[in-house]
Model the fold of this input.
Amino acid sequence: MKSVRKYNNRMKKSVLGIGNALVDILTRIDNDNILNELGLPKGSMQLIDNSTSEQIAKTLEKFEHSMAPGGSAANTIHGLAKCGVKAGYIGFTGNDEVGLFFEEAMKSAGVEPIMFHDDVPSGIAHAIISPDGERTFATNLGAAVLLNESHLALDIFKGWDYCYVEGYLIANRPLFEKAIKMAKQSGCKVVLDLASYNVVDANRDFLLKLLPDIDIVFANEEEAKALTHSTPEESLEFIAKNCEIAVVKVGKRGSLIKRGDEKVQVGVNKVNVVDTTGAGDMYAAGFMAGLINGYDLKKSGDLGNCLAENVIQNLGAKLKEEQWKQVHTSFRL
Done:
C-alpha cells in the first residue's frame, strides 16, 4: 500500500514553471584573459545586446561549445521532469532555430511547453566557464522579455499544484505580480527562487509586500541577507513566519530548512567542481521532487543536494543520463 500511495501522490502533484526562456551556449575557455578582452567581469552576469552577443560568439568560436535549454526556472522544471514529476513551462521564444531547439529539448525531457512566439531572436546566454569552474554569463534576453501579463490567463494555471516562479521575472513587476495572483486564484501553491542578491536588493520592499502570498521560498545566503538584512538563521525564521516552507542555502554548511516548528539542516558532500552553473536550480528541483514524493524535509533536502552536487561535476546545468539513473535508484523515484 505504501508504494501505491506514493505513486498516486506523484501523479496528482504537478509543477508549472514560468521564466525567461533562454538557450545556454556553454564554452570552456583556457584562460581568463579572454574575459578581460570581452569586458566581462569574472563570475558576473551581464545583460548584452544583439551586436555584443555576435561579437562574443565570434571571439569564442575557436573553443568547443554545446547548447542546452536554459534560464533559471527552465532548468528547475527540466530537472523536475527528469525526476518523474509532471511539469510544464511558460515562456517566450523567437520563431527561429534557437527557439525550436529550446522547445524540443524541453519536450524531450517530458516538459509540457506553454510557449509564445514572435519574429524576434530567441534569448541566448553565453555561459563562459573558466579553468577553475567559475562561470561568467553574458545574456541577451531577446524574445524572452516579450512575455508579459497580457499572455497570462487563469486557464493556464488551472490543474497545476505548484507554480514555480524565477526571481528574475521581477524585472517586469506586472508580469511577476499577475503570475502569483493567478496561480493563487487557481489553487496553486507559489514557489519562488530569489534568483540573485542584486535582484532582491533592488526590489526588496516589493518582495516583502508579496511574501505572504508565497508558499515556498528558496534563497542563498546573500539573497536572504538582501531580503532581511539578517543572518541566515534569522532570515530562515523571518521567511518561515511568512511562508509555508523557507529554504536558505549556506554554501559549505549546506542548507537550512523550516516549515512551521520543524527545522532541519542538511549537509553537503565534497565533490570535484567543473562548473557551478545550475546548482541552485537543481537543488530546487530535487527538493520539490522530494516534497511531491512525500519525503520529509531532510530527505527532500538530501535529494536537492544530490542533484546540485551531480550537476556541478558537469559542464552546464544538466545531469548526464547515467547520473539520473543513479539518482532514481538511490532515491527510489
Summary: The radius of gyration is 19 Å. The chain is about 40% helix and 25% strand. The mean pLDDT is 92. The first helix runs from residue 2 to 12.
